[in-house]
Amino acid sequence: MRFTLSMSEVGTWLLMVLVASASIEPHMRMTLEATGEQTLPTSEDIARQQHAMADHPFVSMDEAKSMFGPSEGPGANISNWGQNYCGNNIHVHHPKTYQEVAGLVKALKAQGAKVRVLGVMHSWSNVFADDGTHVIFLDSFKSITQDPNDYTRVTLQAGVTNAELADFADSPNRGYGRFSYLKMNTLVQAVTFIGAAQTASHGSGDGGTCGDFIESLTMIDSWGSISIFDRSHPDFLVYTACLGMCGIILDVTLRFSPETTGVTVTQIKAPLKDFFPRACETNSSFNPLKDWINSHVGGAMNYATYNSAILSGPLDPKKAEIYTANDYCWAQGVTETPGLQVKPDRKGLPIWGTQHEPYYDKDLFIPADYQNAEGTKLHRVALGDWRLNQNSNYMPFFGGLVQNSVLVMQPPSFQLKAEYNTSRASSQHFVRYIEHITHANDYSFALKVDDDYTNIYDAWWALIDINNEMFRDTGSYPMNLYAAIRWLGHSDCPLSGAYGQEGDRFVLIEASSAHGTPGWEEFCRRVLAKFATIKTKKDGSLPKPHWGKVNKDWTPNIAAYTRQAMGPQLERVKEAVFKTDPTGMFRNQHLSEVFELPY
């Protein structure tokens, strides 16, 4: 790994190195063939598969505390990760075997009960469980196996988190020369991969969403039948991302990429206006956002509101536009580096990782059990205990302050380049200590990109302009954490906001706010009203909501808007859902409303 620092002046730069290794035995996988529409495994097949996986359990090198809900039993009140949606009187189940899950489904169906599988509950949306629902957590299913005849085929169970999957991918014990990586960038570490797939979650890059990397899956339908499906099944790409409405996904087999080319990651601090001019200011020779995205296979753009005013004392609402005109943003881009080979070694990976979202960045979080660890004292001195709450959780408000401070301290020409040779290098949103972040709100949409990027510039400035208007009018600015952009190619999963054809490019735009910020709901309503007027010139498509990052309490008309923006896609999903769960056992009230299905 090599670093190159280019600065117009010398500044203080702190860089910690995370040295970690994992001891993981090679994994074997029993191959279950799936041809035609479906293959029904026998009870012996399932038992053998579970036994084979149990013989090689995978344990993360630093397994986070359990985020899979409370202990088993009735009467629980549980909230989603965003802390903005709560299910009351929830019946919690933690089954241990596939047969136990199937038996539970059969018994609950006979009772006419509602059932949801919630993963680690990492969302802000109404896809959660209604009051009185039976919630199944699959945290007992933690195995990862590798096909001994094809090392690019990796099978993982429903309780496996992205952290565990990434550690597996990087393990030297997979065998030298047998390395392959998942070119999928939605890697919030504490989240399960299958949970991310079910919400059609994305990262940033030239690939699709999680579901696009799934080759086969094992699912239980509403009758309690266990089936294995592969891509030959006509509804397969619906099953991979269906918000849990088609059934309970027990395991999936992923297709890793055999490529071993390393990458170079570039971080740049630049004036906001240099990357985001108004659309009317762009032309064929001046289109900075388009140029940046087209020249990088992945990356992100992050902007913390009013960062140019961080040293000027209390903010003045009358100067909102002046602040914006002088603000800076972070641009991060990933390019492939021919000749830099991926190597079976995780040592030397900098703790800064491959992204730059400082308020969400790994090196800024100091979990309670790491407070006395070597290397953290320096950061505690730099950040100050006042930026941590009593549980050592990182405060989003101060996260924005940290990013603003970093932006101001670094000179305008600041640039950092680093080469990476591990699977982390292709990841975005790869956050190890997310469970230690004080909760925030997040609002996100996907837009198909016009050739001139006009719709992207318009949507971006809609967030900033509405935030400025509300700051002037009320003295409070709702978008007080950040606005961000990521990009990706098309997805073949109908549920995805990036559903499209080969050659399509999509940009994801999101706004974030500290939990409980006054005016957040009004901000979201104004943004949605503006987005409803921004249509892609190519096909007239509207911005499409991220299933995990919208909420009807913020925008009461979100169900109707989703049907307007994604009508044909919803019909395709609806058709498949009705086959596996016609009575709505796996649906909550909100999803029944959005998809116009029986509840």
From TrEMBL:
Alphabetically ordered keywords of this record: Signal
SUPFAM superfamilies listed in its UniProt record: FAD-binding/transporter-associated domain-like
Record domain FAD-binding PCMH-type: where: 85-259
Domain of life the protein comes from: Eukaryota
GO MF, one annotated term: oxidoreductase activity, acting on the CH-OH group of donors, oxygen as acceptor
InterPro entries: FAD-bd_PCMH, FAD-bd_PCMH-like_sf, FAD-bd_PCMH_sub1, FAD-bd_PCMH_sub2, FAD_lactone_oxidase-like, Oxid_FAD_bind_N
Keyword ATP-binding on entry: no
UniProt-listed Pfam families: FAD_binding_4
Residues in the signal sequence: 1-22
Protein name: Fad-linked oxidoreductase
Species this chain originates from: Nannochloropsis gaditana
Lineage of the species this protein comes from: Eukaryota, Sar, Stramenopiles, Ochrophyta, Eustigmatophyceae
